[in-house]
Design goal:
The chain is mainly beta and 427 residues long. Helices cover 5% and strands 58% of the residues. The strands form 2 sheets. The protein has a 20-stranded antiparallel β-sheet that branches. Strands 1-2 form a two-stranded antiparallel sheet. About 3% of the residues have low confidence.
């Protein structure tokens, strides 16, 4: 394939990697970034063989023999719900696209470079119009619209990265890598909430948030890989990245029912993380390749307390998210010289506490089952496919609740299924 064709293909893949909220995730991070990785529970820190390692462990780029292009495309279907005294909704049916693309080229015996675009993760819901259980907010009464006031509940939060990367092979076994990642985040959110302006335990202002903001940032990912062929270990660290998002809010003063509009600013971001993993390849003994990883993601950096400002007013949404440790196990077995089958399991304890859960912010799935298949019988082409199932998780809002009293004692649930296809061209 000549240089012009390579450039055209890279540009087409980059254009395909758009920002969308994703539910196929642990916390808000996607389980994996390629069909091959997803088939093995998202493992790739030590066992990654494609360009998606730029977003997991860039040191593994040193495995590229000469050159490689990957395109991943798939979809996910969420199943989420919210139930309290005035609502029982399973949400709006939606299909979300999952895409990533990558290009890598070995420059010499020691240096490999690459560039890719990946949807890091996010979350989103769309309930349409729900009822605000206004009586739960107010002392001895309800709002002017009665005990159940209609309001829109929806959210989209997505984060993607553009990843120029470099791997340096120190010797036959040891490699190090760096990915200088340019990030783009977006937030759309519609949900009513209340403020206690007089600090007496009861709200004075009803706010209907209407966020639609975006921001860019820069972060770094560094990795190391020690691979002797039959086994290997790797580790990667990713720095955090700030996002300053803006929108508007409609304020209704509950004393005189006056209505005003003012800008809103919210500070979020994508957290830092540390990930370590290893693999043992026993295919020569007619046994599977086995890989295991541990990931630590510091969600509390941004989601323990979210700063929000509205004009001269400032507040903090105390969502109280906890840091998350996730465990991943993956298997790959060669049933023929050309075909591989894969399985994986991932567990990450839900980082969202009962006092911080919201119907529009519910990435609470803990258990993920994956499976996949790969074909590499052609000279320059490779194909992979994967299925992923996020097992349904239900959570009950605490009493009292940090943010929204109508979530006290309410049930929020989340589950999903997803599929992804991958085609790779190597030379």
């Amino acid at each position: 394939m000549n240089k012009l064709k390579k450039l055209a293909l890279v540009q087409a893949m980059a254009a395909a990697a758009v920002v969308v909220p994703a539910h196929a995730n642990i916390g808000m991070e996607n389980v994996g970034f390629s069909a091959r990785s997803i088939g093995m529970g998202g493992t790739s820190i030590a066992v990654g063989r494609d360009t998606s390692v730029m977003n997991t462990n860039p040191a593994a780029l040193s495995r590229v023999n000469s050159g490689r292009i990957d395109l991943n495309a798939g979809m996910m279907v969420p199943d989420f719900g919210f139930r309290n005294g005035v609502n029982s909704s399973e949400g709006q049916d939606k299909i979300y696209m999952l895409m990533s693309a990558g290009f890598a080229k070995r420059i010499n015996d020691q240096i490999t470079v690459g560039v890719g675009m990946f949807n890091e993760g996010g979350q989103g819901t769309d309930y349409g119009i729900l009822n605000v259980d206004s009586a739960s907010f107010l002392e001895g009464g309800a709002l002017g619209c009665g005990a159940a006031c209609p309001a829109e509940y929806s959210s989209e939060f997505g984060y993607m990265v553009f990843t120029p990367s470099l791997a340096y092979q120190v010797n036959r076994e040891l490699s190090v890598g760096l990915s200088a990642q340019i990030g783009y985040g977006m937030m759309r959110m519609k949900m009513p909430f209340f403020m206690d302006m007089n600090a007496n335990g009861f709200p004075d202002v009803l706010q209907a948030a209407d966020m639609d903001g975006n921001d860019t940032n820069v972060r770094a990912k560094i990795g190391i890989l020690y691979d002797v062929g039959g086994w290997g270990v790797g580790a990667a660290y990713t720095s955090k990245a700030d996002l300053d998002l803006s929108g508007d809010a409609t304020l209704v003063n509950l004393d005189d029912n006056s209505v005003s509009r003012m800008p809103v600013e919210m500070r979020l971001g994508w957290p830092s993380s540390f990930k370590i993993g290893g693999y043992i390849d026993m295919k020569s003994m007619n046994m599977p390749l086995v890989t295991f990883e541990v990931h630590r993601t510091n969600w509390s950096e941004y989601l323990e307390s979210v700063p929000v400002s509205m004009g001269s007013m400032a507040m903090a949404m105390n969502t109280d998210w906890e840091d998350q440790t996730a465990y991943r196990l993956g298997l790959e077995y060669g049933i023929t010289n050309d075909w591989d089958v894969r399985m994986g399991f991932t567990y990450g304890k839900n980082p969202v506490p009962d006092a911080g859960i919201l119907p529009i912010m519910n990435p609470i799935v803990e258990k993920h089952i994956t499976m996949g298949v790969g074909y590499h019988g052609l000279k320059n082409l490779e194909f992979n496919a994967a299925m992923e199932f996020g097992l349904d998780k239900t959570q009950t809002g605490a009493m009292p609740h940090n943010i929204a009293p109508d979530v006290m004692g309410a049930e929020v649930d989340m589950g999903y299924w997803a599929m992804m296809m991958q085609v790779a061209y190597t030379w």
